[in-house]
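Sorry to interrupt, but I need a hand with the structure work. Could you write out one complete protein record for me, on any chain you like? Just paste the record in under my message, thanks.

. . .
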Amino acid sequence: MPERKAVIAGLELPGQPFSPSVLLEEVELLLRNLGITSAGTVIQRRSRPDPAFLLGKGKAEELALFCKTLGATLLVCNESLTPGQKNNLQRTTGVEVWDRPFVIMKIFELRASSSEAKMQVEMALCKYEIPHLKGLGAQMSRLGGGIGTRGPGETEFERHRRKLERRVRDIGKKLGILKRKRTLQRDRRKKMNLPVVSLVGYTNSGKSSLLRALSGDASLVAENRLFSTLDTFMRKVRLPSGREILLSDTVGFIRDLPPGLVAAFRTTLEEIVSSSFLVFVLDAAAADFQEIREVVEKTVQEIGGGDIPRFFALNKCDLLAADTKRVMEEKFREAGEAAVFISALSGTGLSELLATLDAFLLKTETISREGDGD
């Protein structure tokens, strides 16, 4: 079966926080994880997105020819598309059209292995599909039987919408039961006086590898791919002082994580918010390190974990040049932020990481006890 090819398109807008070329490279990597190759990329500079076509009607007509010339059967836009924009682009280009949120959800769908993760992804996809049903009107309609009557196509549209809405409600109830179970589990852990430390970071930053290395559990899967972990994994880890903690790893972050996925994975992400401490695991060798750090910090803030004590574990330090490492150390020191350089694969810096975590937890608990005494 021939490999599917896609054309990737994006906008360059004034004041964009991220470079369009970096974003398109990321979309290309996401598609590669789905077995889809990039046939070409297009970046259009605009003052604002076109309300009807995102890229403008003229550019959409150019993309139709571009896709045909390259043999691409898929157009992927880096931005989120409205139902109208998606429908207009599909009609004009003659190929299937996806947007960035849908690509990320397809990756999640591919990676989901547990029943909870599968339900969370299905809920996000259903919520995504409902507003886009209108764009399928022509495909779902057939000629009605008279003037002013509701044709069978309209009936089919409404039936499908009701089916999706009913599925969202059913999944929501099941996830609600799981949420209550998680709450009970957290309450039991509190009674056991086991602090929970969560590893948070960008997808493929090495969180799973770090949990595996620190816990010594070789059964944990740590793969060099996007979103290899969608579920929460917890393992006991002993600190230098002899005390034990629960170290948690959960779903990684990415730029423009679809709100539907954030909402669907709320019960999983609540494990982060209920943590005693956070370790921000960042790929120190990433070319866009600062942008990735900002995405992680912003996402943690958005899910309600902005006030939880934290420090940084700068992973893959063995790939850093000595000069680059010195500059990074100085920047963190000047900002008054703790950072430990590690390599989860080679074991470099892991003893220092555990000692730093031990000291921080002791300090945090001391401050908390003093506050309770007041």
